[in-house]
Specification:
Elements: H1 2-35, H2 37-48, H3 56-86, H4 91-98, H5 103-116, H6 124-133, H7 138-150, H8 153-163, H9 165-188, H10 197-201, H11 216-251, H12 258-261, H13 268-276, H14 283-295, H15 300-312, H16 315-321, H17 327-351
Helix pairs in contact: 2-3, 3-8, 3-11, 5-7, 5-9, 7-9, 8-9, 8-14, 9-17, 11-14, 13-15, 14-15, 15-17
Length: 352
């Protein structure tokens, strides 16, 4: 028996080495391709297609050919990593972490957990109900509901790839700040009476879920699943968004956007937020457009305010939340978050 066990372990050794070597090779290939994307895009656009750098179509085509593979490559590796991280934070575990916390501490934890916990508009209602039934304060719940859609890995990757780590860090930090403060304000207003009565009356058969011991092989599978589900779902939005951005990059005159989205237009930030609230898009579709707008003279604060309002205050999510929230609470939620976004927009227009 001992001999058999030893034989299995001996066979597993080379297998693990081969797997590790493949992983290292894939990472090296990814890095090599990513590093030379711009020369490849230039060769494809100007040599193979024969377009000129000074033409509108040449500029637009080069933007598209460079940005699409760059963003998709960043998405693949970051979504894989986030998928592994998310395996440590199931919705059940998130509720357990937040239940019983003091409100101020809970707001911070909820906003941070919102980044790594799986969330989409369709899960807003069951997550909200689960939090309420677990005794999580209303303000803490809203900190989570604001942070989860606003600060997502797709937006972080796109901002990092197009603007660099500083803008990505600004996006994450300001998004967290809005989620924390907005949730705290909503908690102070004592608006529990505007939650639909049936939510408190409903008793879920929420037995403690025990998923058992999760191995690293399971976590890696979770990363692969995240890539299939997230990248598989958003890549068309990435391509369409970059195509729109390429058109703006190639054909909109330099400085054109500054006339109504620039720093000098004081009304630009509130108009951007008002335009963004009723719109429906996601980070994959809106960030490439923001990139092109900035390149044509739009102010960073105005562009960030527009992007945050589109992502955090989408109309479909408000319609879904209406099942559990009365209209008064939805109005307060939208108003508080909008004010936070306005402050961010003006602040960054002043700083940058």
């Amino acid at each position: 028996m001992a001999t058999t066990q030893s034989s299995i372990e001996t066979n597993q050794g080379p297998s693990r080495l081969v797997s590790a070597a493949k992983s290292i090779g894939l990472v090296a290939a990814w890095y090599g391709l990513y590093r030379y994307l711009q020369p490849i895009a230039d060769w494809f656009t100007y040599s193979l297609l024969g377009l000129t750098k000074t033409s509108h179509i040449g500029s637009a085509a080069n933007f598209f050919v460079f940005e699409v593979p760059k963003v998709l490559m960043l998405l693949l590796i970051v979504v894989f990593g986030v998928g592994i991280i998310r395996s440590f934070f199931t919705p059940e575990k998130t509720r357990q972490i937040l239940a019983g916390r003091r409100e101020s501490v809970g707001n911070v934890l909820a906003a941070l957990l919102g980044i790594v916990t799986p969330f989409c508009s369709c899960s807003a209602v069951p997550l909200f109900m689960g939090f309420v039934q677990a005794g999580v304060p209303l303000g803490v719940t809203f900190s989570f509901l604001i942070a989860a859609p606003m600060i997502n890995e797709v937006a972080i990757v796109l901002l990092f790839g197009m603007f660099g780590w500083k803008v990505a860090a600004i996006y994450v930090s300001t998004g967290l700040l809005i989620a924390i403060i907005a949730g705290w304000v909503i908690g102070r207003l004592k608006l529990e009476r505007f939650v639909e009565d049936w939510v408190y009356a409903f008793q879920a058969n929420a037995a403690n879920f025990d998923a058992g011991e999760i191995t690293w092989a399971d976590r890696i599978d979770s990363g692969k699943t995240a890539v299939r589900e997230i990248v598989g779902r958003v890549w068309p939005y990435v391509v369409v968004g970059i195509a729109v951005g390429a058109g703006i990059h190639g054909y909109v005159p330099q400085g054109f956007m500054a006339s109504f989205m620039g720093k000098s237009a004081w009304w630009a930030v509130p108009v951007a937020v008002l335009m963004g609230v009723p719109m429906y898009s996601n980070a994959a579709g809106i960030v490439p457009v923001i990139s092109a707008l900035l390149g044509k003279g739009a102010a960073l604060g105005t562009a960030l305010a527009f992007m945050m309002s589109v992502i955090a205050l989408s109309l479909p999510e408000m319609i879904i939340l209406r099942k559990v929230l009365k209209i008064q609470l939805i109005a307060v939620f939208v108003s508080v978050v909008s004010v936070g976004i306005l402050i961010v927009g003006y602040l960054f227009n002043i700083i940058f």
